[in-house]
Amino acid sequence: MAAKVAGKLSASLEDYLEAIYHLTAGQEVARSKDIAERMKVSRASVTGALKTLSEKKLVHYKPYGYATLTEKGWQTARRVAGRHEILTRFFEDILGAEASTAQAAACRAEHSLGPEITARLMAFVEFVSKRQDDGQDITKQFQQCWKRTSS
User: Fold this and answer.
1) What are phi and psi for residue 113, nearest 5 degrees?
2) For all residues of the chain together, what is the average pLDDT?
3) Whole domain around residue 66: which residue ranges?
4) What phi and psi values does residue 135 have, to the nearest 5 degrees?
């Protein structure tokens, strides 16, 4: 069973919310089939998760129907997606990890970061980005240092 995280949602349920968030951005509703395909899980797993999320008032869902996020669900999903994006940027843009590696690591780490660490990481990513705008590419310097020390 997945560990409980802030807001009393398991990592798995946060992943479902994030999937619904991305799916509804393009088509306003999420079908069980689309959620299952995106997450590479069975439709039965999706149904169970949607029932739980509905009980927690995070999604509107009726069996054999579509799923949409409630306002509370949208806010929660947006926070999860934001953590994922920040972590992906950090792993890929700053640490120089391959895109697929950065995505996988972000997906695992996003569930365990609290708001303070997320805010600090976001500020750090922005700080580094601004240094690049000023001509100080500390990201490149770090990546060169990493290559020297890891070979």
Assistant:
1) -90, 130
2) 88
3) 4-75
4) 90, 5
89-123 pLDDT, tens digit each = 999 988 889 999 999 999 999 888 888 888 888 88
Burial 44-78 (b: 16+ CB within 10 A, else e): eebbebbebbbebebbbbeeeebbbbbeebbebbe
Specify whether 88 is located in the same domain as 49. Answer: no
The predicted structure's pLDDT at residue 11: 94
Q: Are residues 67 and 124 in the same domain?
A: no
> Three-state SS across 55-119?
HCCCEEECCCCCEEECHHHHHHHHHHHHHHHHHHHHHHHHCCCCHHHHHHHHHHHCCCCCHHHHH
One domain, residues 141 and 89: yes
